[in-house]
Write a structure and sequence with these properties.
The protein is an all-alpha fold. Among the domains are: 1-106, Serine Threonine Protein Phosphatase 5, Tetratricopeptide repeat, CATH 1.25.40; 318-402, Alpha Horseshoe (Serine Threonine Protein Phosphatase 5, Tetratricopeptide repeat); 424-513, Tetratricopeptide repeat domain (Serine Threonine Protein Phosphatase 5, Tetratricopeptide repeat), CATH 1.25.40.10. It has helices at residues 2-24, 27-40, 45-57, 61-70, 77-90, 94-103, 109-121, 125-138, 144-161, 176-189, 192-211, 218-238, 242-254, 260-274, 279-285, 300-316, 320-333, 338-350, 354-367, 372-386, 389-397, 406-418, 422-438, 440-443, 452-467, 471-484, 489-502, 504-511, 526-530, 547-556, 623-628, 659-672. Helix 5 packs antiparallel against helix 6 (94-103) and helix 22 (406-418) packs antiparallel against helix 23 (422-438).
């Protein structure tokens, strides 16, 4: 009895210590006291609950979950449901947390709050929205602002990832978090200018909010603003301002924010700007996307986009095996997605395996008919690259949902024309026109046979047939157009022009339907037109012409003025008695009497070598022989001439042509003032 009493007294003292430490926030010390209580009574439910709470407050979620799981008989789901679900949530075991919450017998407010967070992480945005609305409606405490922020985050996620038009929640954007979430929702709708204004407002509110706290430094403010600036840079990137975006992205990276999710997104966006350029920078940035915990910070679509870019980067850096491995993993995760198979096909094309790439795309199109159109467009592009234009046309014509579209018709007609297959081009026009005639009621602005698309195709077909000499077929199309709109003068004129080549009598009959010249007058003020700024001819203003002048004016149209021939200029030393040189039109080097340029005087060669010696033979210094000898310069075309297109780069200090002569002049000037010689 005495021992039991002493234990009770000790336990009471320990509980007091636990209570005091809990109020002071000293959970590490409180945990020590709780452990001492559990030594006295290991199955004390309250002590076990306190131990779990202390471990959670100290961030030891795994240990706390271990305590819960080892004492399941004492700590039942009704007692510890929230703590267990919270530990699972913080350990990123989201599915387990959801099961724990749903298995709880009583849904407390704390569990409902956690339930909303779990649904958001699972990307079940509709259920999450309903959960937060219920919380806001039925809660009255100091956390109302946080719940509204979470609600706006859900709406932003729906707009961004599910392309749902967000509803107006009527929230007053008094905090920078609400402004930021509103901007994200606007980005999802493509309203980039409005989103940028919201982000600027969010930045202003953030600075105001944090500057009120004296303990917050400028670095802390910069770190908090990093996510806002990151979104601003993303908007710049979408607007095509890639240089500004890149500069802002790099500024954020230099701040070294602790949010690994933010760094991963920024690194991925920089890689998309670099594309196939600056791959070394991209290889550095891709390391940021592999940081620990990134997969728990980003949405599934963000993670998927990062993996796609990793595969593309591997392709651009010629890492073929890595590219195939990454794209194969992506395809196994999302078998119906287009990008993995397109990346694989692109890699095969880089390896010059076009046939294998087309086969891969063909297999995917057969397995996934819903995505066949995009795949077949790629196959057609590969066929065109190989020069198989006709096969590309066959692939394009097999796309049922696109083959009648005006753009596709235009492309097919152009390609067939390039191959000079006019019959196939006309067949494309005919099939498209027939399709619109059959599907008019259901797809083209109601049951209107005079649809602009339908009529424009007929007109284009007629023009094409006229261009390629198919006049009778063109006449049939033009008659159909004129029948649809008898007031169309342009069509009637085309029809008359076509008949004039085939049946002139019919053309005369149809010409009676043309409006008279009086009804077609354009009512143009000729004087105003001639005096306008863009007129190339301005009529001279003059008085009334007299009889003689009038006859002159009338005669001017018949008599043409003779142009005066300019006399050719003769050279100054021209002598009419001397016969001109017949080779005067040839360049000097190509004339028969050209003997090359004269060399400089032998004076330049004197003084070279050792004292008292000469560099040339005595015969060369003989003045009598030099006078009668022919010049020694190489003739044009000889082997000693230097090519103008030589790739040899001359030394930087090489003397320019004519340098010796310049030097000679300088020496002569100096000698004038000299008193003695050598």
């Amino acid at each position: 009895k005495m021992a039991a009493g002493a234990a009770a007294v000790a336990a009471a003292g320990l509980w007091s210590e636990v209570h005091r430490c809990g109020q002071n926030g000293d959970f590490a010390r409180a945990l020590k006291s709780v452990n001492k209580i559990l030594q006295i009574n290991k199955d004390d439910v309250t002590a076990l609950q306190c131990k779990v709470v202390c471990l959670i407050q100290n961030g030891n979620f795994k240990e706390a979950l271990g305590v819960i799981n080892t004492h399941t008989k004492v700590l039942t789901s009704d007692v510890i449901a929230f703590e267990k679900a919270y530990c699972e949530y913080r350990l990123n075991r989201i599915e387990s947390a959801l099961k724990t919450i749903q298995s709880a017998s009583q849904q407390t407010d704390k569990l409902k709050e956690l339930y909303g967070q779990v649904l958001y992480r699972l990307e079940r945005y509709d259920d999450c929205l309903a959960a937060y609305r219920d919380l806001i409606r039925n809660s009255q405490d100091e956390y109302e602002e946080e719940r509204k922020t979470n609600l706006s985050a859900v709406v932003a996620a729906q707009s961004t990832w599910e392309k749902v038009v967000p509803e107006d929640l009527g929230l007053r954007e008094a905090t920078y978090e609400l402004c930021y979430n509103s901007a994200c929702a606007l980005i999802g709708q493509g309203k980039l200018n409005e989103a940028m204004k919201k982000l600027q407002k969010a930045e202003e509110l953030c600075r105001q909010s944090l500057s009120e706290d004296s303990d917050v430094t400028e670095e802390d403010i910069g770190a908090e603003l990093a996510i806002i600036h990151g979104q601003m840079a993303y908007i710049m990137q979408l607007q095509g301002r890639t240089e500004d975006a890149l500069q802002l992205y790099n500024q954020i990276i230099k701040l070294k924010p602790t949010d690994v999710g933010l760094l991963a997104v920024i690194a991925n966006n920089i890689i998309t700007i670099n594309k196939d350029q600056n791959v070394f920078d991209s290889k550095k940035k891709v390391k940021l996307t592999n940081a620990e915990g990134v997969e728990h910070k980003l949405s599934k679509k963000q993670l998927q986009a990062i993996e796609f870019n990793k595969a593309l980067l591997a392709m651009y850096t010629n890492q073929a095996d890595q590219c195939r491995k990454l794209s194969a993993n992506l395809q196994s995760q999302s078998p119906e997605h287009l990008l993995p198979v397109l990346i694989q096909a692109a890699q095969l094309c880089r390896e010059k395996q076009h046939a294998k790439a087309i086969g891969l795309l063909q297999d995917f199109a057969e397995q996934h008919p819903a995505n066949a159109a995009e795949i077949k467009l790629t196959m057609a592009q590969l066929k065109i690259a190989q020069g198989s234009v006709t096969k590309a046309c066959m692939i394009l014509r097999s796309i049922e949902e696109l083959k009648h579209k005006p753009g596709m018709v235009s492309a097919l007609v152009t390609m067939y024309s390039h191959e000079e297959d006019i019959d196939s081009a006309i067949e494309v026009f005919t099939q498209a026109i027939q399709w619109y005639q059959q599907h008019q009621a259901s797809q083209i602005r109601g049951a209107n046979p005079k649809s602009p698309v339908h009529l424009s195709l007929i007109r284009e077909a007629a023009n094409f047939k006229l261009k390629h000499g198919r006049k009778k077929e063109a006449i049939s199309d033009l008659e159909e157009l004129w029948k649809q709109n008898p007031k169309d003068v342009h069509t009637l004129a085309q029809l008359i022009s076509a008949y004039s080549l085939v049946d002139p009598e019919k053309a005369k009959v149809l010409s009676k339907h043309l409006p008279s010249s009086d009804t077609m007058s354009l009512k143009v003020d000729v004087d105003a037109l001639e005096n306008s700024h863009g007129a190339t001819y301005v009529r001279k203003k003059a008085g009334k012409l007299t009889g003689d002048n009038q006859q002159k004016e009338q005669g001017q149209g018949e008599v043409k003025k003779k142009k005066k021939k300019k006399k050719g200029k003769l050279p100054k030393n021209y002598d009419p008695k001397v016969t001109p040189d017949p080779e005067r039109w040839l360049p000097m080097r190509e004339r028969s009497y050209y003997r090359g340029r004269k060399k400089g005087k032998k004076k330049d060669q004197v003084g070279k070598g050792t004292q008292g010696s000469t560099t040339t033979g005595s015969s060369e210094l003989d003045a009598s022989r030099t006078a009668s000898s022919p010049p020694t310069s190489p003739r044009p075309g000889s082997g000693t001439a230097v090519s103008v297109t030589s790739n040899v780069i001359p030394p930087r200090h090489q003397k320019p042509a004519g340098a010796p002569a310049a030097k000679k002049k300088q020496q002569q000037k100096k000698k004038k003032g000299a008193k003695g010689g050598w």
